[in-house]
Design brief:
- This protein is of the alpha+beta class.
- The chain has three domains: about 100 residues, no CATH class; about 60 residues, Orthogonal Bundle (Helix Hairpins); about 130 residues, Heat Shock Protein 90.
- About 60% of the residues lie in helices and about 10% in strands.
- It has seven helices and seven strands.
- The strands form two sheets. The protein has a five-stranded mixed β-sheet, covered by helices on one side. The protein has a two-stranded antiparallel ribbon with strand order 1-3.
- A hairpin with a 5-residue loop joins strand 6 and strand 7.
- The longest helix has about 60 residues.
- The radius of gyration is 42 Å and the shape is elongated.
- InterPro entries: HAMP_dom, HATPase_C_sf, HATPase_dom, His_kinase_dom, HisK_dim/P_dom, HisK_dim/P_sf, Sig_transdc_His_kin-like_C, TCS_sensor_his_kinase.
- It is an enzyme of class 2 (transferase).
- It comes from Amycolatopsis vancoresmycina DSM 44592.
């Protein structure tokens, strides 16, 4: 039985019960009023008038009248109730169909997305109408599809970038081996270059695994002091202003977050530049700020710094391009956010904000 049919039966059944109750109350009131006895005045009829009926005859006539009226009331009431019940069921069928039309739209959209070659797709319900339960359901479905769409797009970009990044060092390795075989180069020099490339590959794979882990939901949380973590990963030459900043989360992921920020600030710097690291607590949140005096970065380029495998040209060969992507993923996994602002004098200020424990 479909939901529309169940709603129609429910509407019709409720109306029928209400009609039977109304007919019963009408019957009780009718019999109470008709069943009352009336006073009869008797006397002597005038000369030449027909004789008056007896009291027994009057009672019999009244009884027959009540019986006929009651039968007529019940019969005609039942017929009218049945006809109106059928009409109510028909109207209920139409109303239920109209009320369930948005749900059919949700179902059809879900089936189109499931049958599409691209699971993310761009189909949306975009239901218009009053803010009711069905509208809220459709809006929630649209938000879910939007997140799925972004997730699939990010997955495609990630796979494409990872494939490119992993293919490049393999090609370099093959080229070095071929050149060494042709020219008879020193095996030690060749081994040194291959070890350097392999070390970068290991770092890249570790970064990919950490990025995948940071994008998963946290299963366990424990109090973590960001100041203590930052002190462990920050070199002595960097300026440090570390106040207690306790949050709840995964200590290893948060340590990697702080390490990536400090490493990024040191790598993307100018000769003789500075790095400043600060932790603080404000308004129920803890913050980690890392600033440096690096090269000038156009403000329009700042959002792209958090994309996987994004590296600036000057240091393209020094890192894996996953540092800030891991920072953003770890922060989001802990319910936090990351903001970055380019300094006009050069360098970057990155602030990580997390809920305080």
């Amino acid at each position: 039985m479909t939901l529309r049919l169940r709603l129609t039966v429910l509407y019709g059944g409720l109306f029928l019960l209400a009609g039977v109750a109304l007919l019963g109350v009408t019957y009780l009131l009718f019999t109470r009023q008709v069943g009352q006895r009336v006073a009869v005045l008797t006397g002597t009829p005038p000369p030449g008038a027909p004789p008056l009926p007896s009291l027994d005859a009057l009672d019999e006539q009244a009884r027959q009248l009540r019986a006929a009226a009651t039968t007529s009331l019940l019969t005609q009431g039942a017929i009218a109730l049945g006809a109106v019940a059928v009409l109510a069921a028909g109207l209920g069928w139409l109303v239920a169909g109209r009320a369930l039309a948005p749900l059919r739209q949700v179902t059809d959209t879900a089936r189109r997305i499931a049958a599409a070659a691209d699971p993310g797709g761009h189909a949306r319900i975009a239901l218009r109408g009053p803010e009711d339960e069905v509208k809220n359901l459709a809006d929630a479905f649209d938000v879910m599809v939007e997140r799925l769409d972004r997730s699939f797009d990010a997955q495609r970009r990630f796979v494409a970038n990872a494939s490119h990044e992993l293919r490049t060092p393999l090609t370099v390795n093959r080229s070095l081996v071929e050149v060494a075989m042709r020219r008879g180069s020193d095996v030690r020099e060749l081994g040194t270059k291959l070890l350097r490339i392999n070390a970068r590959n290991e770092k890249l794979i570790s970064g990919l695994l950490l990025l995948a882990k940071s994008e998963s939901a946290l299963t366990a949380r424990s109090p973590v002091d960001l100041a203590a973590l930052v002190a462990q990963v920050t070199p002595p030459e960097a300026e440090q202003s570390l106040a207690e900043a306790v949050t709840a989360g995964d200590a290893l992921l948060l340590e990697r977050l702080a390490g990536n920020l400090v490493e990024n600030a040191i790598r993307h710097n100018v000769p003789g530049g500075w790095v400043r690291v600060t932790t603080r607590t404000a308004a129920g949140r803890v913050e980690l700020e890392v600033a440096n005096s690096g090269p000038v970065i156009p403000p329009a380029e700042v959002p792209a710094l958090f994309d996987p495998f994004h590296r600036r040209a000057r240091v393209a060969a020094e890192g894996t391009g996953l540092g800030l992507s891991i920072v953003r993923s770890v922060a989001h996994a802990h319910g936090g956010a990351v903001t970055a602002e380019a300094r006009a004098e050069g360098g970057l200020v990155v602030v990580v904000s997390l809920p305080a424990a």
